[in-house]
Design a protein that fits this description.
The structure holds 2 protein chains of 2 kinds.
Chain A (H helix, E strand, L loop, with lengths): L5 H9 L5 H14 L6 E4 L1 H17 L11 E5 L26 H8 L3 E6 L33 H8 L5 E6 L5 H7 L2 E4 L19 E6 L2 H11 L33 E5 H5 L5 H16 L3 E5 L7 H16 L22 H12 L2 H14 L4 H25 L2 E5 L20 H5 L6 H6 L3 E8 L5 E7 L5 H13 L1
Parallel strand pairs in A: 2-3, 2-4, 7-8, 7-9
Antiparallel strand pairs in A: 1-3, 4-6, 5-6, 5-10, 9-11, 10-11
Chain B lengths: L4 H10 L9 H15 L36 H4 L18
The chains are: A alpha/beta, B mainly alpha.
Keywords (chain A): ATP-binding, Ligase, Nucleotide-binding, Protein biosynthesis
Family (chain A): Belongs to the amidase family. GatA subfamily.
Organism (chain A): Fibrella rubiginis
């Protein structure tokens, strides 16, 4: 059985039950056995074994002077730069690309003795909610291989779910860490915007993108956040606020005189027809447990709820159209070959390279963003969405004036079938896929932190997630509360 | 309909993308349905609301480091990912 917490890994490493090399070999075996899930796009078998041997040697020399992540075997979503390794963001346009530097977040994991075992499949340029748009093919949910793992960090969530690594690092622009974590029955954290440096993260929408950990327990995502967070001179948007000891965070218990926690829950999460009955029931169950524990739990509604996704899509497609203009086939990435004998000018080369290199969803979002930013429509779409973004943030701030946390289901439904929402030939509404992110996007539109933890299963045995959101930089209490709910 | 065929080709040109002929119809439908859905925002009164343009805390916008050269990418490394290059330069099709 694979390990389900870093604490148990550390205990077994300390008492000699296992070694880093033993851990890596076990994970490599399970990765091979679960190749059909398609969670990894590349596995660094030799490198991980070598690293494990080095770490075992270091522990033998001096068991006290080891890094905080010594023995943690981690996978990286294919959007994080790791020098000397492939990096493709799940896209053909970066076929053969080798990263030239290491992301700050990854650098910090390595400095604390983590072992990177491979890079993990994701939706192309992190655009998707089902991991069906990757150039590397679909990823399958280990709970039911005919169903999606969620996205865009689908490979990362499945890898943790199936015990192919202890933890993964993903990215979350509209729910891409939390939604797949919910679909796969694991824990996913999106920190406050700017808590972790984005240096070395392939950009999708820069005012939304956050690096976030996926693991089995709140304690493990807390430790990873603690290691990755903090000031970085290569990202001018990263916060310089001190990094707390998130992995030690606790909430004072009511028994020891702590005040009751004040939780608001979004009324739509337990009443809306758009939320599956099983998820409504599971969410109500979590509310009942909090009430029984003596906390204040009260319903709230958001008047701007239905405007969250349109705001998100206008702004993210606009930012994406700008960010992805760098892929032009000149300095790196795919360059189209001119038809034999044909004279091709530079603009024609850009167009052909980009059209061949990007998949349909990415091209569609670039076109939407280009439209929203075009001179005649800029104010009607882009400026309007930025104004609504401020109103959403103001309304969210008002909720948190009275409450410590906002509770919602992570997703309105559980993992859907492969092709169910993505089959472009069928009569599927492209907006159905977008609605999977209805509860997660608020945290990205506002920049607030949020965590998804498992909350039982539905009648098909599929995992259900519950989400807690907190005010900016309140990760300590957010994680402590998640830890408390996780243990129940 | 916000996007007609002419507009589609215009924005595709601005985005440096081609519209494969077999995708034209579906793309028009798909873009227009998403844009219609986005227009729900017109129901929100935003009179006098300042657009939110920075997500960092107000005291932390654009923190810059000292302007010192560091973190360079050596030429040999920079050329590793170039699709067509010689010893020194990345090559493109004849421009002039």
């Amino acid at each position: 059985m694979p390990y389900r917490s870093f604490r148990s890994v550390q205990a077994d490493l300390a008492n000699g039950t296992t070694t880093c090399r033993g851990l890596v070999d076990d994970y490599l075996t399970r990765i091979a056995e679960n190749a059909h899930l398609n969670a990894f796009t590349e596995v660094y078998a030799d490198e991980a074994r070598q690293r494990a041997d080095e770490l075992d040697g270091r522990r033998a020399e001096n068991p006290v002077r080891i890094g905080r992540l010594h023995g943690m075997v981690i996978g990286l979503k294919d959007v994080l730069s790791h020098a000397g390794h492939g990096l493709q963001a799940g896209s053909h346009i970066l076929s053969g690309f080798t990263a030239q530097f290491t992301a700050t977040a990854v650098e910090r994991l390595l400095a604390e003795d983590a072992i990177i075992i491979g890079r993990q499949n994701c939706d192309e340029f992190a655009m998707g909610s089902s991991n069906e748009s990757s150039a590397f093919g679909v990823v399958r949910n280990a709970a039911d291989p005919e169903r999606v793992p969620g996205g865009s960090s689908g490979g990362s969530a499945v890898a943790v779910q199936a015990g192919l690594c202890l933890a993964s690092i993903g990215s979350d622009t509209g729910g891409s860490v939390r939604q797949p974590a919910a679909f796969c029955g694991v824990v996913g954290l999106k920190p406050t915007y700017g808590r972790i440096s984005r240096w070395g993260l392939v950009a999708y929408a820069s005012s939304f993108d956050c690096i976030g950990p996926i693991a089995n327990t709140p304690a493990d995502v807390a430790l990873l956040l603690e290691v990755m967070a903090g000031a970085d001179e290569f990202d001018s948007t990263v916060s310089t606020r001190p990094v707390a000891a998130y992995s030690q965070a606790t909430l004072p218990s009511l028994a020891s005189g702590g005040r009751p926690v004040r939780v608001a829950y979004l009324i739509d999460g337990v009443e809306s027809e758009g939320v599956s009955p099983d998820i409504r029931r599971a969410t109500q169950g979590a509310i009942d447990r909090l009430l029984a524990a003596g906390h204040v739990v009260e319903p709230v509604s958001l008047s701007l709820l239905k405007y969250l996704l349109p705001t998100y899509y206008i702004l993210t497609t606009a930012e994406a159209s700008s960010n992805l203009s760098r892929f032009d086939g000149v300095r790196y990435g795919h360059r189209a070959q001119p038809a034999s004998g044909a004279q091709t000018d530079l603009v024609e080369m850009y167009k052909q390279s980009r059209t061949e290199g990007f998949g349909p969803e990415v091209r569609k979002r670039i076109l939407l963003g280009t439209f929203a930013l075009s001179a005649s429509y800029y104010d009607a779409y882009y400026t309007k969405a930025q104004q609504v973004r401020r109103l959403v943030r103001d309304e969210t701030e008002r909720v948190f004036a009275n409450y410590d946390f906002l509770l919602t289901p992570t997703t309105p439904g559980s993992a859907f079938r492969l092709g169910e929402k993505s089959d472009h030939t069928a009569e599927t509404d492209p907006l159905q896929m977008y609605l999977a992110d209805i509860f997660t996007v608020q945290a990205n539109v506002t920049g607030y932190p949020a965590i998804s933890i498992p909350n039982g299963t539905d009648s098909n045995g599929l995992p259900i997630g519950i989400q807690l959101m907190a005010p900016p930089f309140a990760e300590e209490s957010l994680i402590a509360m998640a830890e408390r709910m996780f243990k129940v | 309909m916000k996007v007609d065929t002419e507009t589609l080709y215009k924005i595709a040109h601005l985005a440096r993308l081609k519209v494969p002929p077999e995708e034209e119809g579906q793309l028009l439908n798909s873009l227009n349905s998403v844009l219609d859905w986005m227009e729900q925002l017109n129901e929100v009164d935003t009179t006098g609301i300042e657009p939110l343009t920075h997500m960092s805390a107000l005291d932390e916008v654009d923190i810059l480091r000292d302007d010192v050269v560091k973190n360079q990418l050596p030429r040999t490394q920079a050329l590793v990912n170039a699709p067509v290059h010689d010893e020194q330069f990345i090559k493109v099709t004849k421009v002039l």
